[in-house]
Design a protein that fits this description.
Blueprint (H helix, E strand, L loop, with lengths): L1 H13 L28 E4 L3 E6 L4 E9 L1 H5 L23 H4 L4 E5 L9 H6 L6 E5 H22 L4 E8 L4 E2 L4 E2 L3 E8 L4 E8 L12 H8 L32 E6 L4 H12 L3 E8 L3 H15 L4 E4 L15 E7 L1
Parallel strand pairs: 12-13
Antiparallel strand pairs: 1-2, 2-3, 3-6, 4-5, 6-9, 7-8, 9-10, 11-14, 12-14
Helix pairs in contact: 7-8
């Protein structure tokens, strides 16, 4: 009987493992409760504030999903715990282990950021190793945190209603630890605003010296990942448009992608990177948005024109006062449109 019980237990662990995720306990975290379709075999894991479709072979998420809004992100945040733990719901042979990351040279990179969590329990859950991927250290602490996660939160704080965020990674450039946790080649974050029927994705190489490029379209992300997220977005749309831009029937369609470059103060390094892209023929146009810091905006526009010949337009973009939203009013943002 004990032998039979072990066989039944072992079989039950494998029953949920398939290419058809169910997420019975957390379907409301998905847009229109539509679960993405993928040929990748995995396990669906529900948490309080997010969900993970987990790869037992790669020992990392295939994708994660969050449903966020500005009110959530403005709420008081619990103290960051930094208490990583192994996911007990997974069979032992499918788990990533704490020892796998030790001395690997890679960070335990959050798919669902701890900074998105507004409850102590959610904060604690975000440190499950099921939520981690081996991420290049400078990438995790630099370009990913500052140029992907932060702009995503800033956008959500500025709009009305829920915004859905999918995060994941693809590719295989090796592995770490005895569990052979796959090191991905690229990381992505898909942002979907159902109120505007707008979606775009950040696509970043998993290296310490990765460079930020324009967001890719929803259709391009499907092609790169093989995952259909079932969003009601026109797949023929070539590139995402600037989510901060107001739509106008009279305006001409903008061809090419866009990406923001933030200046909290004058930065010769960031300016040089912009000028380099312009000289390389990668930039179609540029708009410099400011609120209070006109002096910095004008200085950046003058330097760009003097060094590259491109005339950047200035745009005074003063957000409305709101008790629920905090804006970086001295920040200047260069909105770059790529060719």
């Amino acid at each position: 009987m004990k032998f039979l019980a072990k066989i039944l237990l072992f079989s039950s662990l494998w029953l949920p493992l398939s290419a058809s995720a169910l997420f019975n306990q957390c379907q409301d975290l998905f847009p229109n409760q539509q679960i993405p379709s993928t040929s990748q075999v995995g396990r669906d894991l529900c948490f309080d504030d997010f969900a993970i479709y987990y790869s037992p072979s790669d020992k990392k998420p295939i994708y994660t999903v969050e449903r966020l809004n500005g009110e959530q992100l403005q709420a008081p945040h619990p103290r960051r715990t930094n208490q990583f733990y192994e996911e007990a719901r997974l069979p032992a042979h499918e788990r990533a282990l704490l020892a796998d990351y030790r001395g690997s040279g890679y960070d335990r990179g959050h798919n669902v950021p701890a900074s998105d969590m507004t409850s102590e329990r959610g904060m604690a859950q975000s440190f499950s190793l099921a939520n981690m991927m081996p991420q290049a250290r400078q990438n995790n602490q630099g370009i990913w945190a500052k140029r992907v996660e932060e702009p995503t939160r800033m956008y959500i704080k500025r709009v009305q209603g829920d915004v859905y965020v999918f995060t994941g990674s693809v590719g295989h450039v090796g592995s770490i630890g005895k569990s052979k946790v796959t090191i991905p080649s690229h990381l992505y974050k898909l942002v979907y605003d159902p109120a505007k029927k707008l979606a775009w994705a950040y696509w970043v190489e998993n290296t310490d010296d990765a460079q930020m490029s324009a967001p890719i379209s929803y259709a391009e992300l499907i092609q790169k990942t093989g995952i259909d997220f079932h969003l009601p977005i026109e797949l023929g749309e070539s590139k995402p448009r600037n989510p901060a831009e107001k739509s106008s029937l009279k305006s001409k369609p903008v061809v090419g992608g866009w990406y923001p470059v933030f200046f909290d103060q004058y930065s010769a390094q960031r300016l040089a990177a912009l000028v380099s892209n312009i000289k390389a023929g990668k930039v179609a146009s540029m708009q410099i948005q400011y609120d209070r810091n006109l002096e910095l905006a004008q200085k950046l526009a003058q330097e760009i024109q003097m060094q590259s010949g491109l005339q950047a337009t200035l745009s005074h973009s003063s957000p409305p006062d709101s008790p629920n939203v905090i804006y970086e009013r001295n920040r200047v943002t260069a909105i770059v449109r790529s060719k």
